[in-house]
Amino acid sequence: MERKLMIAPSMGCCDLFDMERQVRIIDEKSDFLHMDIKDGVYVPSFGIGPEFLAALKDKVSTPMDAHLMIKHPQQYLETFAKAGAAYITPHTDCIEGDAFVTINKELGCKAGIALNPSVPLETIEYYLPLLDKVTIMIVDAGISGQKVIEQTYDKIRKLVKIREEKGLDFLIEADGSMNRDVYRPLYEAGADMVVLGPPALWNKADDFEEAWAIMENELESELN
């Protein structure tokens, strides 16, 4: 069976005036719901909060992934677990001093970790067996409009090799400046899933259903 490239739209990008319709479409057609949590400290921008997840918790069936681009994620693990996150994904440089305690927290959530482009894979090698997902940032986190850092494709290839050699089964997600030009190289590098922001989805057309159809056609055409 041919490998699929899963999609995780970034839910904070939904149009507030068309929110319900967009959420329903995304929930029906996506593999994950990507929740960008930004504090204006770890990254120079702000995102949604736990209230957003809590509002969707009983309305969606697709797993919600809380991507914690925040300086002190340890303080908010329980908050996001209670809000309905199926996955919690902090950044590795924010949990260096207590990584095992943070990941082993018994919250009923699956454990993810995110790495900025400059962070080497060796940083996570000792707790890699504990992870359910690794998010490889292909641009620096939290700053829009960047060009994809192509060296991150090699990083994904290396992570795929490590996963195979160690017999692990975590997901590999690519996040940042996503668009049709990078679907093929990310897929060939071994990424399992991509995060979709405005350039990949919302900006494709004024009407969201039309934008979704364009995105699907681009994804299919690039991978076939």
Summarize the structure.
This protein has 224 residues and is of the alpha/beta class.
Outline the structure in words:
The protein is α/β, with parallel strands linked by helices and 224 residues long. It is built from 7 helices and 8 strands; from the N terminus they run βαβαβαβαββαβαβα. An 8-stranded parallel beta sheet has the order 1-8-7-6-5-4-3-2, with helices on one face.
Largest sheet: 8 strands, parallel
Count of distinct strands: 8
The main sheet orders its strands as: 1-8-7-6-5-4-3-2
Termini separation (Å)? 14 Å
Mean pLDDT: 96
Global morphology: globular
**Count of individual helical segments:** 7
Integer-rounded radius of gyration: 16 Å
Enumerate the spans where pLDDT stays under 50 for 5 or more consecutive residues: none
Instruction: Decide which structural class fits the backbone.
Output: alpha/beta
- Work out the helicity level: 25-40%
Strand proportion, as a percent range, falls in 15-25%
**Which H/E pattern describes the elements?**
EHEHEHEHEEHEHEH
Write the layout of secondary structure elements.
Layout: E1 6-9, H1 19-29, E2 33-38, H2 50-56, E3 64-69, H3 77-83, E4 87-90, H4 99-103, E5 110-115, E6 133-137, H5 151-166, E7 171-175, H6 180-189, E8 193-196, H7 208-223
Parallel strand pairs: 1-8, 2-3, 3-4, 4-5, 5-6, 6-7, 7-8
